[in-house]
Q: What sequence folds into this?
């Protein structure tokens, strides 16, 4: 790209500081022009740490900066809707953290607002940009593991001992499903290339943690008798895995969603044969921001259009509803 995308960061969250800001600064397609926070001092500290030229003590000030082309929104889930709409109205392209919204209705309005404003909107599922995903799809298409019969995904960690956490607020989009369950759910939709037909989910709602789902397990039914079983939560041993089971073999990702320098390898198992595929190390956050910049520059068609986020949000809210109401939800 001849002209780099000029980014503004709405908030100084941990994910912005440890992953996305460094990724943009390491990319060939973008620069971080400004960061904003509700605290000007916090914005200043972040700007100084990362040598960002400008900082603002409010999100409104950043959106008013005519030299910013795109914004990254790492705010708490309940703020995604408002600041995506306001960013679109300010003419900024938007990379918004997952999950995109609190429900599919909000997500639909966000997509519509961006379409009306003529700006790009993308949900920040960085794992999808790791080249091993394309390699896994290639293996499946080759027929090596046969027809897919089932998938299982997990994403758990334990922060139950924390006295307070934004994820302990149900009305803020808190809970394990929205925080980490969205990963195996989106992965199943991506790998299978289909939308689910029904879902049944069971959860542990903790009154000591704002009555959010601290642990959840579910069954997601896809066409053709294929299903995803999954578990997720914030009150269990840390792990994030994915298994794709076929009629002739299976693919196992021991570390499926937080790929680091050594976490990108996966296993292909067929009968008594087993091999470890070793994709080249990469930074999926950097791949994500580069992909976004090329979409903005209209150098390519978006691999994951914003309508995908609406569909994933529809599945997420169905899982939560199923767990709350203790019943199977038909989609």
A:
């Amino acid at each position: 790209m001849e002209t780099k995308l000029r980014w503004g960061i709405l908030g100084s969250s941990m994910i912005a500081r440890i992953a996305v800001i460094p990724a943009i600064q390491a990319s060939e397609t973008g620069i971080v022009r400004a960061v904003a926070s509700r605290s000007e001092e916090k914005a200043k500290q972040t700007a100084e740490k990362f040598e960002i030229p400008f900082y603002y003590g409010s999100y409104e000030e950043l959106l008013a900066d005519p030299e910013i082309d795109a914004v990254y929104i790492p705010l708490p889930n309940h703020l995604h809707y408002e600041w995506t709409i306001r960013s679109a109205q300010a003419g900024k392209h938007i990379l918004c953290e997952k999950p995109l919204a609190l429900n599919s209705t909000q997500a639909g309005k966000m997509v519509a607002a961006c379409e009306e404003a003529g700006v790009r909107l993308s949900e920040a599922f960085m794992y999808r940009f790791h080249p091993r995903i394309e390699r896994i799809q290639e293996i499946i298409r080759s027929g090596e593991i046969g027809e897919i019969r089932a998938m299982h995904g997990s994403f758990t960690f334990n922060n139950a001992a924390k006295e307070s956490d934004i994820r302990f607020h149900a009305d803020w989009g808190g809970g394990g499903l929205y925080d980490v369950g969205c990963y195996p759910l989106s992965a199943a939709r991506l790998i299978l290339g289909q939308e689910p037909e029904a879902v049944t989910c069971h959860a542990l709602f903790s009154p000591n943690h704002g009555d959010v789902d601290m642990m959840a397990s579910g069954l997601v039914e896809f066409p053709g008798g294929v299903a995803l079983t999954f578990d997720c939560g914030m009150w269990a041993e840390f792990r994030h895995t994915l298994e794709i089971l076929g009629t002739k073999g299976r693919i196992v990702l021991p570390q499926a969603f937080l790929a680091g320098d050594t976490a990108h390898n996966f296993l292909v198992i067929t009968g008594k044969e087993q091999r470890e595929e070793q994709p080249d190390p990469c930074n999926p956050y950097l791949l994500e921001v580069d992909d976004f910049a090329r979409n903005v520059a209209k150098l390519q068609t978006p691999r994951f259009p914003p309508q995908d986020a609406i569909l994933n949000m529809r599945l997420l809210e169905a899982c939560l509803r199923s767990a709350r109401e203790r019943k199977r939800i038909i989609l």
